[in-house]
Amino acid sequence: MTASLAWILPIGVAVGGFGLLIGSFLNVVVYRLPNGMSLSTPPSACPGCGSRIKAYDNVPVLSWLALQGKCRGCKKAISARYPLVELGTAAFFFIVGLRFVPRGLLLEPGHAIVAQLPVVLAFLYLAAISVALGLIDVDVHRLPNAIVLPSYVAGVVLFTAAAVLSGEWDSLIRGLIGLAVLWVAYAGMALAYPGGMGFGDVKLAGVLGLYLGWLGWGPLIVGAFAAFLLGGLFSLILLGTKRVGRKGGIPFGPWMLVGAWVGIFLGPSIWAGYLSFLGFN
């Protein structure tokens, strides 16, 4: 086994397996939160017959496959979205793990690696809320405060811990500036064009600005621009195919999230290429 595989496989099993469990919980969040239901009670039950779902029928992905996508009791179909969300979250966590988990974690644990762990947790947290917020916004055109507002606290606390452990105070300051800049920019757009931008988008923008700013000015700029580029192209396609009208209310939150992750993964290289094209490098 090569050194790269020796690093990737354990991280994939650990982080991806964790993602499966989180994906199962996100299915609950996406269904219950917009409906004003408790996330903990009552226990999960079949919407068709109301029978409580047993623990052995609630194993991520495997239970859905074993039951052939049907309730054990009434045989009502269970949406394929449930296992897809679980698998998608696992894959998302795996990719985030490859991006942020230090490669020396398994071989050379030390202070520098410990200092990176709050950053890993921060971006895994962002991945989880990205799945939940994206699906909820598509379903009901809302970005719930119950997810967005605590994300400010979680992000600031985790990045502050990372700065304390690593000394990267410039990254924290840049992240806080990114938070303020994107919040103000989106608030300005929401006030200038109330029908096109909601304050749910404004609040989410601050969270994304914090994460992108932590990584650098390039990711911040690329992530912010990519949201409008990708969202605009998608809207034009829907308008061109007449799937929506000009006032169809296309949710922008998912594109803010997709744009942010473009900035997170590709922002440094895109920004470096752009500066090189302009002759600054």
Automatic annotation (TrEMBL):
A Pfam match = A24_N_bact
Q: What is this protein called?
A: Prepilin peptidase
* Boundaries of every Prepilin type IV endopeptidase peptidase domain copy: 125-236
Membrane topology, from the record: Multi-pass membrane protein
Organism taxonomic ancestry: Bacteria, Bacillati, Actinomycetota, Actinomycetes, Micrococcales
Against InterPro entries, the record matches this protein to: Prepilin_IV_endopep_pep (IPR000045), Prepilin_pept_A24_N (IPR010627), Prepilin_peptidase/N-MTase (IPR050882)
Q: Which UniProt keywords apply?
A: Cell membrane, Membrane, Transmembrane, Transmembrane helix
Would you say which domain of life the source belongs to?
Bacteria
Q: Provide the coiled-coil residue spans.
A: none
Prepilin peptidase A24 N-terminal domain location is 18-100
The organism is Frondihabitans sucicola
Question: Where does the record place it?
Answer: Cell membrane
Bilayer-crossing regions: 6-30, 82-101, 113-135, 147-166, 172-191, 220-240, 252-274
Q: What does the sequence similarity comment in the record state about its family?
A: Belongs to the peptidase A24 family.
* Signal peptide positions (record): none
